Amino acid sequence: MGQKKTAVVLFPHFCNFEIAILLSKLEMVNKPVVFIGASKEIYPCEEGMQTVVDKTYDECDFNEFDSLVITGSYAEGQYILFKDEKLHSIIRKFNEDKKLIAAISSGPMTLCKAGIMKNRKFIAGVEKKWYLEDENIRLKEEDMKGLIGYKDVTKMTKEPDFMLDGNILTALGYRYVEWANEFMRIIKQSKPFLVK
């Protein structure tokens, strides 16, 4: 079997700039990337660029992948991700297999929705109250108990550049370079994760 691939989740209104550096770094080391999504529609990112999924979730053989990437999005994208039970199932499978899951900005909240963050520390570029109050993206306090960084200007300067807890790598959106560098460090070491 060839080199393991990185799956990058595309969806309407995803944030392209948060993953642009990571994609460039993966290309430089010839790491195969497959853009996956719910369907092969044309998805506009937040910046307006039109993107196309390489493979739908149903077309993927997830044994080919060693990592999964989920970018952030404003409310419209979050609403789509929170309804996507097939994606939640994929996230749970990657987690069970101890494969790297990297999420940035509001992306980690999708990991919460998939139910894998209850005993993990993580950083997300969101206001926690949004997820307690908005019925379209509602989470319970216990689903987010590991959230240590969020969209609070005074707090953001005190938080680490990224958080790695087991096989889960998270960061605030403006730390996309540091997050990408850590992702590359992890995939180069090719050692199994020690999941708590």
Describe the overall structure.
The chain has 196 residues and is an alpha/beta fold. Helix content is 33%, strand content 21%. It has one domain (5-189): 3-Layer(aba) Sandwich (Rossmann fold), CATH 3.40.50. It has helices at 17-28, 75-83, 85-96, 107-113, 128-133, 153-156, 176-189; strands spanning 5-9, 33-37, 42-44, 50-52, 55-56, 65-70, 100-104, 122-123, 147-149, 163-165, 168-171. Strands 5-2-1-6-7-11-10 form a 7-stranded mixed sheet, sandwiched between helices. α1 (17-28) runs parallel beside α7 (176-189). The model is unreliable at 192-196 (pLDDT under 50).
Give the structure's gist in a few sentences.
With 196 residues, the chain is an alpha/beta fold. The chain has helices at 17-28, 75-83, 85-96, 107-113, 128-133, 153-156, 176-189; strands spanning 5-9, 33-37, 42-44, 50-52, 55-56, 65-70, 100-104, 122-123, 147-149, 163-165, 168-171.
Topology:
Elements: E1 5-9, H1 17-28, E2 33-37, E3 42-44, E4 50-52, E5 55-56, E6 65-70, H2 75-83, H3 85-96, E7 100-104, H4 107-113, E8 122-123, H5 128-133, E9 147-149, H6 153-156, E10 163-165, E11 168-171, H7 176-189
Parallel strand pairs: 1-2, 1-6, 2-5, 6-7, 7-11, 8-9
Antiparallel strand pairs: 3-4, 10-11
The arrangement of helices and strands along the chain is EHEEEEEHHEHEHEHEEH
| The CATH H-level homologous superfamily | Class I glutamine amidotransferase (GATase) domain
Based on the structure given, which CATH architecture is correct? 3-Layer(aba) Sandwich
Strand content: 15-25%
- The backbone outline, from C-alpha atoms, is globular
| Helix count, DSSP H or I runs of 4 or more residues | 7
Q: At the third CATH level, what is the topology name?
A: Rossmann fold
Poorly predicted residue ranges: 192-196
Strands in their spatial order, largest beta sheet: 5-2-1-6-7-11-10
Structural domain count: 1
The first-to-last residue Cα distance is: 30 Å
CATH class: Alpha Beta
Structural class, from secondary structure content?
alpha/beta
Give the biggest sheet.
7 strands, mixed
Averaging pLDDT over every residue, what do you get?
Answer: 90
Using only C-alpha atoms, the radius of gyration works out to 15 Å
